[in-house]
Design a protein that fits this description.
By secondary structure, the chain is α+β, with helices and mostly antiparallel strands. The chain has a single domain, classed as 2,3-Dihydroxybiphenyl 1,2-Dioxygenase, domain 1 (Roll). It has helices spanning about 15-25, 80-90, and strands at about 5-10, 30-35, 40-45, 45-50, 75-80, 95, 100-105, 105-110, 120-125. Strands 5, 6, 7, 8 and 9 form a five-stranded mixed sheet that branches. It has a four-stranded mixed sheet with strand order 1-4-3-2, with helices on one face. The protein is globular. It starts with 5 loop residues before the first strand and ends with a strand. The relative contact order is 0.20.
């Protein structure tokens, strides 16, 4: 396959709330929507699949475990001015897991989508 799109699946509790969150706050555009089971949104070459409890991705595993949102694996979105983005998103009521952290490669912060899935905003050093 030569598809240059990056595909990431997030399990969400509420597909419509996830669509609204990603399109309102993080610059994604809707692609395919089948609430309450499934939707996908696009930002550049990232296709984020939003799978609700009624989707095939939300079905219990053979051993009885049920997939659920959350964890620490996350999508990583580059921003030009992390302080301005954080201020804008906080004013819009977005929940962050921490304050901005600085490291040798740049500055980052992790926020939660409505289902508790993490999203990292990252401003590279020197940007």
């Amino acid at each position: 396959m030569t598809d240059e799109t990056v595909h990431v699946r997030y399990l969400v509790d509420d597909v419509q709330a996830a669509i609204d969150f990603y399109t309102t706050h993080l610059g994604f555009v809707p692609n395919t929507t089948y609430p309450p089971a499934f939707a996908d949104v696009l930002r550049g070459n990232l296709r984020l699949l939003l799978s609700g409890p009624a989707s095939s991705a939300g079905r219990p595993m053979p051993d009885g475990r049920t997939p659920h949102p959350g964890g620490w694996n996350r999508i990583h979105l580059l921003v030009e001015d992390i302080d301005a983005e954080v201020a804008r998103l906080r004013a819009e009521g977005v929940v962050f897991r921490s304050d901005v952290v600085s490291g040798p490669g740049g500055r980052q912060i992790v926020l939660d989508d409505p289902a508790g899935n993490p999203v990292e905003l990252f401003q590279p050093a020197g940007a």
